[in-house]
Amino acid sequence: MALREPVLDEGAVRTEGGRVDLVVVAEMVKPGSRVLDVGAGDGELLELLATTRGCDARGIELSREGVNAGVARGLAIIQGDADVDLAHYPDDAFDYVILSQTLQATRRPRWVLEQMLRIGRRAIVSFPNFGHWRSRLDLLVNGRMPVTDNMPFAWYETPNIHFCTIRDFVALAEELDAKMEKAVALNSAGHRVRVDMPWWVWNLMGEQAVFRLTRKA
Amino acid sequence: MTSFVPPDASAPKADAEAEDAVETRARQEADDPHSPVARFGPSQPLRLDAGVLLPHLQIGYQTYGELNAARTNAVLVCHALTGDQHAANLNPVTGKPGWWETLVGPGKPIDTERFHVICANVLGGCMGTTGPSSTNPATGRPYGLDMPLVTIRDMVNAQAMLLDHLGIDKLLCVAGGSMGGMQVLQWAASYPERVFSALPIATAARHSAQNIAFHEVGRQAVMADPDWRGGRYLAEGVMPYRGLAVARMAAHITYMSDQALHRKFGRRLQDRATPTFGFDADFQVESYLRHQGEAFVQRFDANSYLYVTRAMDYFDLAADYDGVLAHAFKGSKTRFCLVSFTSDWLFPTEDSRTIVHALNASGANVSFAEIESDKGHDAFLLEEPELFAIAHGFLDSAARAFGLPPARGR
User: Fold this and answer.
1) Best interface-test mutation with B: which of A60, A71, A85 has the largest number of B CBs within 10 A?
2) CB-based contacts of B319, cutoff 8 Å, min separation 6
3) What is the ipTM of this complex?
4) For position A17, which CATH number holds?
5) CB distance from B330 to chain A under 8 Å?
6) B79, B286, B307: which is closest to B174 by C-alpha?
7) pLDDT tens digits, one per residue of B124-156
8) Does the beta-carbon distance from A58 to B392 stay under 8 Å?
9) Residue A43 in contact with residue B351, Cβ under 8 Å?
């Protein structure tokens, strides 16, 4: 595959070894706020938010290994299942509820997003865009489910059971009556897709997307 | 006291004498323990949940590590059902290591080079804190069943008196497993402003029907022993050994997992090649349980066992807060870390998760880890590296947030 990435970026995002989308997510969080990270892994984002932005950052993570490693580093993470445990948090408990690279692995993405908008005043969601040109090309040319750096699992063993495209997500946000405050799409080089591009370009060029939503009024 | 009959008349004489010595030491500990004791007179009575005042209270306790000048490095460790204040020193009765030396000590997660660790024998216990085997100052005889029933909250209120006595206002952490974890939860609910962080392990916010049932079996075994004498065995110079041993044997099964029992003993026979076709301890697991029962009766008072199991049965934290557990932690600033073990069927993970949900609902800062282990409920007392890493990380983070200097590198 010798196709070249079109140059549409606004400048590279700092990575510093960590996941690119985490930096973008962290930049959307106001310093000193209360944050819940759903699907916190071993707490990489929690640590980033606590150390660089002075947040009261807490997490939920399904995998025991992730939780135990995070708690051993002194982070506030609970072992739990987003599909169930979000129901136990009261309304407006957090300033931000974050779901990074986890939406596609939930059993009930719509319910999870609703809960996020209930628990937090703002929701930040990052996810791999299944509408990216390379996914489309894989299906079109090879007739196979795409396997990429961002989506590294074969169809039969992937935890990602609810893939969506950027446009699918935008449609869901509209259905939930959520207001889109910020949106960033990252191409495969980790560069931002220019904001003045139409949706179809984002949906084609964005390998990952990060959205910040809030309840309308 | 030399009039106690040894539990097993067939034991060799030297063993019997050694057992007698353990019992004698155990009896002495009730009033004059090998540890510091705080005594409170009628001017500071303890008001019990049973609705009566306890005019004379003594608390046997241990401390490890130095209290810093600002008094900000105190960690209270709460012991389980049959534990005592000797968490990290040789036990004066059994001569065995402290019950939580895996977690408490120099360089351990609850680091006695960094923290001032306090552990007190619970109210109703038999190792120096007032309980049914203590001498009632009003009569000069053991309380026996004249001792009022006590609750987990009573135990915690007594510990709070001890801390006042020691001049410690706020605890960096309260930690404990099983019944110790119940005390941790009660501490966080009753004295939120005195608890900066809480580490309840393998515990529940209320004792389940199944657990009450197991305790009842144990109590009935004790009370069915003719030597229990309606609770007056100390005055009559006997001990309900057999009943208490059976109680311990039944309870011990609940502390282990099926896998752990199988790994340790399987169906292997004890010192024999074939079954004897009798009721001797053919199987290793039988022999092990008998040994556990016999060792226990030498060090533990039968009435204490009744009182302390009862305290656990009565524990239902939510009941004190309109039936809503989250209300027990409303507005709490305490940092919590809960830990459960996959093979613990006495205090299963769901019990911890219920507490986590309540803490989430109340907006508290909480961590929760379930550790994969096949050691059953007893895992919290055993070699569990993940527990050590979690306890260390949680306590270190709490200490830094509480303003303590970072741990010295080692």
Assistant:
1) A71
2) B206
3) 0.87
4) 3.40.50.150
5) no
6) B79
7) 999 999 999 999 999 999 999 999 999 999 999
8) no
9) no
Contact A72 B372 (CB under 8 A): no
Pair A121, A97: CB distance under 8 Å: no
**Was domain B13-401 assigned CATH 3.40.50.1820?**
yes
Classify residue A144: in a domain, yes or no: no
Residues above pLDDT 90, as percent of chain B? 92
Rounded CA-CA distance B76/B74 in Å is 7
The number of distinct structural domains making up chain A is 1
User: Within an 8 Å CB–CB cutoff, is residue B392 touching chain A?
Assistant: yes
Measured between CA atoms, the residue of chain B closest to residue A71 is B390
Distance from CA of B390 to the nearest CA of A (A): 4
Nearest CA in chain B to A91: B361
| CA-based torsion, B172, B150, B315, B61: positive or negative | positive
Report, as an integer, the average pLDDT of B58-71: 98
Query: Is B366 in contact with A76 (Cβ distance < 8 A)?
Result: yes
The tokens of B229 are what?
């004498």
- Residue B68, token pair as written in the block: 């810093």
Q: Decide if A80 is inside a domain.
A: yes
Residue A4 lies in a domain: no
Distance CA A69, CA B240 (A): 48
Nearest Cβ partner for B367 among A78, A89, A93: A78
Domain of residue A76 covers 9-129+163-215
Cross-chain residue pair A71–B393, CB shorter than 8 Å: yes
The verdict on whether B215 is a catalytic residue reads no
Nearest CA to B291 among B250, B337, B342, B249?
B249
Contacts of B369 in chain A (CB under 8 A): 64, 67-68, 71, 77, 79
Q: How far is it, in rounded angstroms, from Cα A70 to Cα A72?
A: 5
| Closest-CA residue to A190 (of A15, A1, A2, A46) | A15
Rounded distance between C-alpha atoms, residue A141 and residue A146, angstroms: 11
Q: Give residue A114's pLDDT band: very low, low, confident or very high (50, 70, 90).
A: very high
Q: Which residues of A touch B368 (CB under 8 A)?
A: 67, 71, 77-80
Q: Is A85 helix (H, G, I), strand (E, B) or coil?
A: helix
Residue B327's CB: how many other CB atoms inside 10 A?
17
Across B225-246, average pLDDT: 96
User: Chain A contact for B353, CB < 8 A?
Assistant: yes
**A100 close to A82: Cβ distance less than 8 angstroms:** no
Is residue A149 one of the residues assigned to a domain?
no
- B204-233 tens-digit pLDDT: 999 999 999 999 999 999 999 999 999 999
